[in-house]
Amino acid sequence: MPLTLEAPPRKRPQAGLNSDSFIQIDHVTFGYDASRTILNDVSMQFARGKVTAILGGSGCGKTTLLRLIGGVYKPQKGRVIFDGAEIDTRDRDQLYAIRRRLGMLFQFGALFTDLSVYENVAFPLREHMDLSETMIRDIVLMKLNAVGLRGAAQLRISEVSGGMARRIALARAVALDPEVIMYDEPFAGLDPISMGVTANLIRRLNDTTGATSLMVSHDVQECFAIADYAYLMMPGGIVVAHGRPEELNESTDPQVRQFIRGEPDGPIKFHYPAPPFAEALGLPQ
Amino acid sequence: MAKKSTETLVGVFVLLGIIGLAFLALKAANLASFSASKTYTVRARFDNIGGLKKNAPVRSAGVSVGQVTSITLDKNTYQGLVVMKINESVQFPVDSSAKILTAGLLGDQYVGIEPGSDDKNLANGDLIKQTQSAVVLENLIGQLIFNKAADAGSSSTPAPAPGASLAPAPAAASAAVSGSRK
Amino acid sequence: MIAFVNALGQATLRTFTALGHAAYFFVDLVRYTPSSLRRFGLVVDQIYAIGYRSLTIILASGFAVGCVLALQMYYALVPFGAAESLGLVVNLSLVRELGPVVTALLFAGRAGTALTAEIGLMKAGEQLSAMELMAVDPRSRVLAPRFLAGIVSMPILAILYSAIGILGAWLIAVELIGVDPANFWSIMQSKVDITRDVGNGIVKSFVFGVICTGVALYQGYETQATPEGVAYATTRTVVFSSLAVLAMDFILTAMMFSTS
Q1: What is the ipTM metric for this complex?
Q2: Which residues of chain C are within 8 Å of residue A113 when distances are taken between CB atoms?
Q3: What residue spans define the domains of chain C?
Q4: A107 belongs to a structural domain
Q5: pTM exceeding the 0.80 threshold for the entire prediction
Q6: Would residue A109 count as lying in a domain?
């Protein structure tokens, strides 16, 4: 469905043209243990100030990518570059500095259940900055207002719905005005209205603050509506295609077409590998 | 970041703990009688300290006035050296005597101090010269049997060698006693 | 045959690895505990959740056990003509052993499982990962305050258990059985030593607090992020805490109360 968005002028000017990829994944291979490789020689670039989508089915390592960028894990091969510097997961100071500039929206919000809505959004402010209570109050209400939930500030987390939880988590993720915002499946499980609201918010936030946004999703339509660039991944952790949404729409690669059109059968088979059905039923071949 | 009500209840909780501790310490243990008053040290040597243990009370006229702090073997005289601390408010003359007594029939042993009549009082580190050791039950029984044998011997024919009858009796007596002792 | 030896070896290695992992975890907990003093509000919240909320069961259990002890010990002491020492016997039983141990077992069941479940669910809901990505160390902000609260609450609970147990025993002994109240207290007071008995009991309960809280936090932190995983972890908390408490109790008793 078409989405009309306003595009207010960017506040932050773009950096030099030749180094405008804020985050780079450089030939990264990674697996949680020796037996499974989640990412296989993956290379990606995320342009400063743009919205980049990472698309793919489940099990292709999209969420793992976000954790690598956050410095939670160290790739077995290759490196992750954040604003020109390679991430060293053993350097706690560097990790701390990177995470201060990062905001992440988890799939189900990951709100702190023992705090109220207000306290959740105030959390990064209290932990990382030394502000007066009135300042914190102003900022929290501003962020909640941006996601449309200023009236819900005093509710407990157990009292909010799933869609609301995600918006509150978004407010929390942008409380410190981060330079990078990462979204893990922001559209999963939402009704059409909430999806539209979320997409709108993601685009608007990116444009008003000049942040770099990364979206991990399998919702092609919503992503293409707001993304500047997209990567398509397949199970096994490989990038099969990348480009602007218009380019991907016109691609003739069968894998890309199957994913974008949502065709049930194609390079990714419908049937889980099994012997012929007639044989299983005991019928003559 | 704690709510007011939570903080209050935690305060109540901690206060309850302090009250409980005070109750246990004062009402249910010997803290009240064992005040942190100043003490001075006094030593005494005994031939046999019997079952006296460290921290055993030191009493005079039955009233607790101090505590035994250490019991060691004096290597020069081969006597038991008992070091005790006594409340400063209680002073004893230098010729006071110390005995090892038993509380009740089978109770714990303690040091009893009987005051002497000297004008000078015991100072910190002084030695009590007159001591009486603990009563050792085996010796008592052995003595009893010896006396009985001696009585029998003096009235009629010489009794069988006291040594022979002495030997098994103390052994049997000590076997019977060691079961109930310590 | 070879397969059996292989399996045994693997199991042993796994146990050692798990023990080492747990040891690292404990060291981390202790390391982060001083920093949790800066977040004192959090510690206070946790003392409420862990300590105050356990009061009901601790006080009820202590009172009941004190009453029962009085009854049972009375019948045991009467043949020796030592019924007057009832207070002393009950006091020593409670203050030295039952207070710290039973409190620890109840604590593991009530507060320990609550901690495990809470931490496990926080982990399942990705709250701990979210905190980490916000550059806030979850061990410092979530685990350490709970650890500190646990080791502060446990001695308080053990003291209250013993205290109310003695009161219960007094009620039964003096009001119900008819033991002389003056003797009840005076014999108790003369024989119970503040440092040796009460003090050692408090040291024990402190050690048990470390054990129970540490095990509960560890199980919660390491649990599988599924409903079955959390349920299994809470069971393990109770079992491991109880076994460790009983084992340490034996060791501590042997160390503290050996006749010297």
Answers
A1: 0.79
A2: 121-122, 125, 127
A3: 39-253
A4: no
A5: no
A6: no
